[in-house]
Each structure stands twice: as structure tokens, then as C-alpha cells.
């Protein structure tokens, strides 16, 4: 049996995480197994509404059986106003098992597709210290976390380009805050004046680990020095005879830059933590490990949850909910 | 008499501020009057060492008399390692009337030119809380400030792409710190995810002044929230029905962004100020006025000094010092 035919025969539904710069798709069985994976670099920023269906078919068309309609459950920026079709934000606080009620169906030409786009979350300012904020995609990971571990409570961190810190309580998200951390790091390392000094980001280079931890602690102790410490990396590269030469030099400074940017985020997030609270980290292994190291440097406990598993659990919950609901 | 001939007849020396992205030149008389100005967009980043003499001649060649050698005194990045010829950093603390002792003469072909490149300053870490730092160009403005007002003491701020805070004492610079403020703002406004929300930066738009001041105060009170408040600008644009439409909307958010970035710098610089100290601001009128507004919002007093006048006074001091010294 060919691989394609096996996928088509076992396929029950398709999970899709469609972000700004790429999409990832999983062929799912009835019992939540992944039988195939696919992806594309055509994210929301590269697409107009008319492009989405063709992009989806180019990515998962091989999985579809000749007959029948396959549910496709999509989270992320495809549901943004500039995406395929807008799935309006649900306001927090909100229960995480209710995301499907905000899902919308885009117009489709191929009768084999049954697509639903999940909504993001928004937050308005209030007396309890909430600020304007939005998320699209991470809410589905949070829903998956709660679906898998219903008793999860307290702070959850989702590192990334726009890192999210959410607070969970009894199956609901009560508030959240986004930090520009990943985007800031990418620019500082690749385009700012620091680009001349920053090398490959690898904490395994000699001294990288220590440089990262020291930077986290320094900026968390004095966050007002952030913009000064950034320029200090360039000056250190020009002046510090103690830095190693070659690749280790750039890696050392990259480790320090990463520590400064993540440390500033943690300094902000720490202010919302209760004494002794443990942070749940959702993300890729590498990034979650780095955040775990940074949290440890600030004496904050944490545990890591796989990001892909959370996404699939969240989309799976939406799939089950939508299968039960009358078709809109 | 033609303008060119008048300049050539009155010209005593040429002042040059040669930065990363442009150069500015002034034709000076014996008694410190400016008889002509010229400029070029060919800064250090666009030049190899062999390009400098031709660029200088293309900019000020019209001013030179047919015979005789004209002193040209240059501050800024032309003296960097990647510039025309390196004028090695002088370490702080150092007296500001001694910059000329670190000046170097680049190789020249045109016998009408007598060029000297002034050095920048560097700072190494020590027990007194100094950090690695460098400056090239601002030290000449500080020297000019002290030449014009010898009793100037205390904190001096030079806003810009890489904003400098220096401390003066009895004609010497004792320490300084650079903040990546201007570069950070340019990237956030023009290239980051905020570019969709940030409009023309004009505090004169309705509400702009208030938005700027509020942002300065918020980030100075809680600098650890900086990266969160940055993303909050994007969320506010998406969600806040209280924002005005059109040009005023983008201007309001630009004012707030400017306040966040400058506020973070001031929060850092404030930590080094003694109670009741007045800050001397050196810069262009617009930027100095904005910093004055931000300082006022934090109840810090300041006075403004014109940046061009400081540059010319600093180069003038170097010119006089070099004229007295034996030719190297």
C-alpha cells in the first residue's frame, strides 16, 4: 500500500496551524494519531484571501480521499482580518474549551474540504491591570494544555516571536501579556549595529551558558539599563581583550544578547507571579530549554510541555466540539 | 565678488563632522565665524579608506584657495578603525581639552589639505560601576561645551541614534553610557510588526503631547514592562475604539512609542543622577525639546545647548591646540 493511500484510508481530519510566515499541517486519525505531516512557507503575510484554498490543497491535497468531505481545523493568523476570513477575537476572561464557538467557515470551491478557522483572543484594559492585547494560535495551545491536563492552573509562558504569558484558572484564561522578545532579538542580532558583533546563537559554545545566565540576572535586577546594555555588547566586542576569538566570540555575545532580551521579558512577567508559583512552558524543545534556564537563574520553577502536542490537542478539542455541534 | 572667492579669501580652517551616514563641513574664519556650509551623504559606512580624500575634495574643494595649506579638523567615525585612518580611543576619565593629543594625520595627495582626525573615547569596566562603552563625535561636542562654558559640571545628555549620557567634572569626562534609543525607535516604527500602526511622528497632533508624556512616565515607573508595552501599541491599534482615525491615529501611537523608548533610556540614566541635578542637553532643537519634555515629565530639570555650536567649538579648540603644537 502506498504511503499516500495509507494516509487517505486512515485520515479522519486535518489539523492546521497557519501562522504569519508558514503553515504546518497534520493528517490525524480518529484516535488522535498523526499519520503524516506537511508544511509550506506560504504564511498569512504572503497570501491574499483567494490564495488560501489553493495553498491548502497544494499542501494536503495528497491526503484527501476521492470521495467524502474531510474536516480541516485551522488555528493562527489565517483567521485574522488580513487572513483567509476573519474569526473575530473572543474577549478574555474566557473558557478555553469554548474556542470552537467563535470558529468561522471560509468560502470553498473543493467539495472535499470542510474548513473551520478558530478565533484568537483579545483583552481590553480594566481596573485589574489588564492591558490591550491579542493572540492568534497560542489560545489553541492553551486549550490543548487544559484538554490534556484539566487541573493546570497559574502562569503559562509560550516563548516565540511575540512571547505570550497567560494565566489559567479552572479551565479559563483570565489574562495575558505579549512581549516582543523574539522579534526584538532577531532584529538586534541581524540588522542593528550589533550585527557586526553577534555570531551564531549556540549556548553550547564555551562560556555561552554562563554569559546567558549572567545577562538574564543583570537585566532582571536593573531592567532600566536594557538599552544601555544592548550597546554595551558592541563596545565589549571592540574593547574586551578577555573575549575568545573567532566563532566562540560571536557565540558568547549572542548568548549575552539572548539573555538580555529574555531577561527583560522575565523581569516583566515575574511581577505577575505569586510567591513560589511554577511556570508551565509551552514550546519547542530548544527554546523551552533556554527559557527554563533563564527562569532557573531567577529562582523560578518551571515545567515544559511540548508545543506541537498542545497545538494538536487544542485543534482536536475543536474538532470534537464542532463534530457535535449543528453545522452552521 | 563671487561667493566662492569670498569663502576662499576669508577661510582660515575647515571643521568637519564625519559620521557613519553623512558628513557635514563648515568653512571657518580666524575668529570662529561660519562663512559657508557643505555636506555629503557619503558617510563612513559608504566609504573605503581610499575614498575619503576625494569625497572631502568633492564637498569642500570650492572653498580651497589656489595656494597654501588649509587645516581640516575632523571628528566622528572617519577616525574609526573602519574609517579613513584609526585615531585610537582615549580612555576615560580624561580631560576634554586634550583630545587633540590623540589626533592622527591620514595620508593625503592634495597638498592644499592638512587633515587631522580626532580620537573617540572608550571606557572599561571597573569597581565604580563603569561598563564597556565607546563614543566618536560626541566627545568633541562635550569638549566644545566645556570650552564655551568651563564651569559646566554634572550630567550631559546627547540624544541620537546611540544616545550618550556623560558626566563632567572640572573639565574632564569621568564616565559615560550609551543607549540604543534612536536606532531602536527607527526599527520599531519602520520595520517591526508595529510599522502597521505607527504613523508620522508629530507631537503637535491632538493628544500627541499627552500620549508621549504618559508613555515616558509609565515605562520609567515599570521599565520591566517595556517589551510588553511595545506589543501593546499594536494591540491598541487593533482594539481601541477611543483612538482617532486617520493621520492622528498613527501620530498618537508614534508619540506613545517615542515616549516608551525615551522613557526607558531616562529610567536608566536617572539612576545615575544626584538629587536635584540639572541635565545639560546637547542636540538639534527638535530632539532636545522632546527630551526636555520627557525629563520634565520625570521632574528632572534641564537646559539645552545647540549641538552644532558645540561641535564647532570642540573642533575649534582642537584647531587652536594643533596650531600651537609642533607638527607631527
TrEMBL record, chains A, B:
Pfam families: DGOK. InterPro entries: ATPase_NBD, DGOK, DGOK_C, DGOK_N. This is 2-dehydro-3-deoxygalactonokinase. It comes from Halomonas rhizosphaerae.
Amino acid at each position: 500500500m502506498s504511503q499516500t493511500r495509507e494516509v487517505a484510508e486512515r485520515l479522519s481530519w486535518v489539523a492546521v496551524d497557519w501562522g504569519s510566515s508558514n503553515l504546518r499541517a497534520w493528517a490525524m486519525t480518529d484516535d488522535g494519531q498523526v499519520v503524516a505531516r506537511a508544511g509550506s512557507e506560504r504564511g498569512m503575510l504572503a497570501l491574499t484571501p483567494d490564495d488560501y484554498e489553493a495553498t491548502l490543497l497544494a499542501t494536503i491535497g495528497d491526503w484527501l480521499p476521492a470521495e467524502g468531505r474531510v474536516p480541516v481545523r485551522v488555528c493562527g493568523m489565517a483567521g485574522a482580518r488580513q487572513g483567509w476570513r476573519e474569526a473575530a477575537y473572543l474577549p478574555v476572561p474566557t473558557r478555553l474549551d469554548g474556542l470552537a464557538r467563535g470558529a468561522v467557515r471560509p468560502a470553498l470551491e473543493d467539495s472535499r474540504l470542510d474548513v473551520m478557522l478558530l478565533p484568537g483572543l483579545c483583552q481590553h484594559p480594566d481596573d485589574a491591570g489588564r492591558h490591550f492585547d491579542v493572540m492568534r494560535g497560542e489560545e489553541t495551545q492553551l486549550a490543548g494544555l487544559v484538554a490534556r491536563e484539566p487541573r493546570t492552573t497559574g502562569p503559562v509562558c509560550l516563548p516565540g516571536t511575540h512571547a505570550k504569558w497567560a494565566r489559567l484558572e479552572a479551565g479559563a484564561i483570565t489574562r495575558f501579556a505579549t512581549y516582543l522578545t523574539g522579534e526584538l532579538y532577531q532584529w538586534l542580532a541581524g540588522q542593528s549595529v550589533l550585527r557586526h558583533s553577534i555570531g551564531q546563537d549556540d549556548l553550547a559554545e564555551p562560556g555561552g551558558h554562563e554569559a546567558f545566565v549572567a545577562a538574564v540576572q543583570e537585566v532582571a535586577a536593573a531592567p532600566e539599563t536594557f538599552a544601555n546594555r544592548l550597546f554595551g555588547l558592541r563596545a565589549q566586542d571592540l574593547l574586551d581583550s578577555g573575549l575568545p576569538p573567532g566563532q566562540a566570540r560571536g557565540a558568547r555575545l549572542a548568548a549575552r544578547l539572548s539573555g538580555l532580551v529574555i531577561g527583560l521579558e522575565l523581569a516583566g512577567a515575574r511581577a505577575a507571579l505569586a510567591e513560589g508559583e511554577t511556570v508551565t512552558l509551552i514550546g519547542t524543545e530548544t527554546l523551552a530549554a533556554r527559557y527554563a534556564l533563564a527562569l532557573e537563574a531567577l529562582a523560578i520553577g518551571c515545567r515544559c510541555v511540548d508545543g506541537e502536542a498542545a497545538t494538536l490537542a487544542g485543534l482536536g478539542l475543536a474538532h470534537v466540539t464542532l463534530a457535535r455541534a449543528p453545522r452552521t
